[in-house]
Amino acid sequence: MTTLKIDSIADNLISIHPLLFKSISRPLRNQTSITPGGMYVLGSLKRNGTQSMSDIGKCLSMPKPHVTVIVDKLIEEGYVERQSDPNDRRVVNILLTEKGLEDFENIKQEISENLKLKLSKLSDEEQEILADASQKVREILISILSKE
Q1: How far apart are CA 48 and CA 117, in angstroms?
Q2: Roughly what angle, to the nearest 10 degrees, separates helices 36-48 and 53-60?
Q3: 63 φ, ψ to 5°?
Q4: Which residue, of 32, 70, 103, 129, has the greatest Cβ tally within 10 A?
């Protein structure tokens, strides 16, 4: 593959995140006090169960001090709790509360509905193209991550 093609792919992938942020995360800011980073942490806890701060950071590619700030805010809001690890008192695990899970699911549902509304305005052809392209991009990104 040529360098120009790789450069083009990199540019396209880099530009996707800000576009998704504008269409998904920005409307979220008006509906909840949970930041996008907070949603990522809640999502990680939902997928992986109780995690240490370091594990959350690794899952989300965030530095531990950044995770700590987010988790402290989530604790303040009652979305997560700290729990000492019974096997190692030095380790503090973070667990999702019932309120955290419920609010996470509700916000995720609202985001999904908002996005579906926007997608429904596309033509059938555009929907088909986006469905195929997004599935392929997802599969390729998963493949890239599995090779690391």
Answers
A1: 30
A2: 110
A3: -70, 145
A4: 70
Look at residues 43, 84, 100, 80 and name the one whose alpha carbon lies nearest to residue 68.
Answer: 80
Q: How far apart are CA 27 and CA 71, in angstroms?
A: 22
Residue 117, C-beta contacts closer than 8 angstroms, at least 6 positions apart = none
pTM of the entire structure?
A: 0.79
User: CB neighbours (10 Å) of residue 44?
Assistant: 21
Q: Give the pair of three-digit tokens for residue 105.
A: 């699911």
Q: What are the C-alpha distances in Å from 85 to residues 45, 50, 62, 77, 95?
A: 16, 10, 22, 22, 11
Tens-digit pLDDT profile for the chain (148 aa)? 688 888 998 898 888 888 877 777 666 667 778 888 999 999 999 999 999 999 999 999 899 999 999 999 999 999 999 998 888 888 889 999 999 999 999 988 888 888 888 899 999 999 999 999 999 999 998 898 887 7
